[in-house]
Amino acid sequence: MNKIAQIFETLEYGPAPESAQPALDWLKAHDGIFGHFINGAWTKPGKTFSSDNPANGQSLAQVSEGTAEDVDKAVKAARAAFKSWSALSGYERAKYLYAIARLVQKHSRLFAVLESLDNGKPIRESRDIDIPLVARHFYHHAGWAQHRDREFPGQVPYGVCGQIIPWNFPLLMLAWKIAPALAAGNTVVLKPAEFTSLTALLFAEICEKAGLPKGVVNIVTGFGDTGQAIVAHPDIDKIAFTGSTEVGKAIRAATAGTGKGLSLELGGKSPYIVFEDADIDSAIEGLVDAIWFNQGQVCCAGSRLLIQESIEDRFIAKLKKRMASLRVGDPLDKAIDIGALVAPVQVERVRDLVKKGAAEGAQVYEPDFDIPGGGCFLKPTLITNVSPSHTVVTEEIFGPVLVAMSFRTPEEAVALANNTRYGLAATIWSENINLALDIAPKIKAGVVWINGTNNFDAAVGFGGYKESGFGREGGKEGMGVYMKPAWEKDLKPAAAAKAVPAKPVNPLDGGDSIDQTAKMYIGGKQARPDSGYSRPVHGPGGNLVGEVGDGNRKDIRNAVEAARAALGWGNASAHNRSQVLYFLAENLQYRRAEFAARIREQTGEKGEAEVDAAVERLFAFAGWADKYDGAVHNPPLRAIAAAMVEPIGVLAIVAPPTRPLLGSVALLAPALAMGNPVVLVPSDKAPLSVTDLYQVLETSDVPSGVVNIVTGDSAVLARTLAEHDGVDAMWYFGDAAGSTMVEKASTGNLKQTWTSRGLNYDLADTGRFEGDYFLRRATQVKNVWVPYGA
Ligand code: NAI
Ligand code: MG
């Protein structure tokens, strides 16, 4: 039989290799050795390490290990460039971003080949996905550069951004970091991951070619300690990180108290839910993309298959058959599906986790074919016979390994999907659009794909819930994390709180003239403090004006539990939340005289104006409740992405020591308007205006558990709240030390924090605080992708 006839018979793929030569020539043109790209020029190579090709273990080039001095030089260059770069018109910056996009497109094949050589990903992916998305990102952000001032009035860039990226999408992650930073007017110091520095270095050359002013983009290569030097540098204004949750937490702790902006895009264990009415063949192809795209080294990989029990056997059988036809091999072969993992250490990590799974009783399936030896190749793997507590179900494996479980009902699917510390993405397959759209909002993840998977676009925000991080990349939300209000830089330190007479008090004294001790307010009921103790509240002259309960850990725990039970507040209609806030305003207005007198007792100031301001603030956020909402994006494929604004969850608030009523209401109102149940700690100096609110809350139809109030020593209570894993976000008004403590203690579950850092935020300022300042911090955006048409 001749060869062609044979091929027709078997339909076997022949080899279709892409040439490595252009990339190797480029490396050779640099003598195979690189310094850093700082201030528009290459530094002399320092101590170097090898960047390897994981498909064959061969060294591609030597790159320099960035020292703290290198980082410092890069930061100085970025600082020097910031002034003129940020002063350029939006149009000027747009032209640079556009030029970069054009040049990336022009050299896309070289980028794709170099990326596949250095990272091991199939050329099909780098050529058709990574690099086109990079160009798209710069094109898209050219537009944001030009329209920044129109779309973000009053916002200014941070300054110098330190950006640390991982190795799974080397150039794409660079684009996700650099494009919005430059569009907003920042300058950057970026560190690529140690396994994959080369396309970032090629990109530096593109910046030169585009004529980008020197110092605007600086690339420093190196390991984790180079990253650490960036995080620790005092003259960096914002850190943006993508990588492991572990390092993300370390960065959160390291930046605590520094005032640096921070966005984190971390790990995931994303569910891939297949309902019995799904188009099974499509769902199988989607799954191939979800878990075997980029060898499964994808933060949003659909690594947890949740399959409805009624179709489980049929689906798994089909899946195994499909797995057997996947082709593992040379990343530069255009007809392979799975390339090499990034490095031997990752192969070991994945193998260890699979072994652990087997040891815990899981069943491990691998198709019966050979894979190339001598490189970082692994077979596609399916793990079954697991329960939710298995290591392979809870841990991010970050390799070509799928873990499958079944469910019976949609409710069970949601419970399993959310049973993870992560919340990056989710996929839902069902031909029933009602079912899919019912499930999407119930899943705690930043991206939900319906009947599709791994869709990305520059116009659509991407980022996580929970321990998958905070902040978004892409779209308007992504631009938002590279800017801050111009007025923030003018804030002065708050005046130190007036010392309260620290006379020792006999606990038996005082109580007689006070008719009652205010209790806590937990789950809609007044509750006695667990400690059984109360605290005196003094007026401005040191006179005793009341007593409140002295709350402790236990009271906070009860309050958080009550708030978690009230998370349904986020599902109440925006109109309904708005009505409740208007009603609160009305009922507070009704008791104006009483609240004004209480303010006077505690502060000595006339209270009417503060009560009026609090009523106005409630009105303002009642008005926002049904207006601060999302968008529908139109990415360049037949899909819409609905950007839904969702509450963050349980929000803890420690109110400022000034303005006993407005200080709490100004924070409570935006939190409630957006659907977050709250645990509020009023000022410990003047808590009575808040404890007086109980009756107002009760008469205003605020559902029980939506507002919980714990009085006591705010520093002590703040720590408990910051450490509590049931708290999803925290706003803290207080001094610098307390703010640092809150940010540090928040790392456990990576709760989102906002702290006043001892600065004088004047909450009475309606221009600053009746708008989206706190609304943005009370919400997170979920993008739900829905394909349409055929
Ligand atoms: P990693 O988080 O250590 O590396 C990411 C980047 O952070 C690299 O540029 C690295 O040099 C830098 N880095 C490391 N330690 C640092 C520190 N203390 N301060 C500042 N920068 C630091 O991830 P690694 O070790 O390469 O991979 C381990 C696991 O992390 C993977 O198996 C995967 O589970 C997860 N991972 C998740 C990623 C994601 O996109 N979600 C990306 C990369 C890794
Ligand atoms: Mg490499």
UniProtKB/TrEMBL annotation:
The keyword Disulfide bond does not apply. The active site is at E265. Residues 42-484, 542-753 form the Aldehyde dehydrogenase domain. GO terms for molecular function: oxidoreductase activity, acting on the aldehyde or oxo group of donors, NAD or NADP as acceptor. It comes from Paradevosia shaoguanensis. The lineage of its organism: Bacteria, Pseudomonadati, Pseudomonadota, Alphaproteobacteria, Hyphomicrobiales. This is Aldehyde dehydrogenase family protein. Keywords: Oxidation, Oxidoreductase. Belongs to the aldehyde dehydrogenase family.
